[in-house]
Design goal:
mainly beta, UDP N-Acetylglucosamine Acyltransferase, domain 1, four-stranded parallel sheet
């Protein structure tokens, strides 16, 4: 959980890891949609939006941003940006939630 921000009712399943330092120790950048922001920080974890559900044993890499109302499948490895109201199944497979699931 180090150096991370969790939104209202965000939940992380058992065994989740929020990494906050890159292996090469360089400053961490954050990507939101297609915009890259250099934090100039060597330590920066993850930003989870409101009502995010992270499955067990998921790894959230430094600088990851997860939008509101996202479900992340267990055993996932997350990097960069996941848009709100979506389901993250695995890297490269993110689907939009159906309306009934967003309520």
């Amino acid at each position: 959980m180090g150096d991370s921000v969790l939104g209202y009712k965000a939940h992380m399943g058992a065994g989740c890891i929020t990494s906050n330092v890159k292996s090469d120790k360089t400053p961490i950048s954050v990507t939101v949609e297609s915009k890259r922001i250099d934090t100039e920080l060597r330590k920066f974890g993850t930003i989870l939006g409101d009502n995010v559900e992270v499955g067990s044993n998921t790894v959230l890499n430094p600088g990851s941003v997860v939008g509101r109302n996202v479900i992340i499948y267990p055993l996932s490895m997350v990097r960069k940006f996941i848009p709100q109201n979506s389901i993250y199944k695995k890297q490269g497979e993110v689907v939009e939630k159906r309306e009934s699931l967003c309520e």
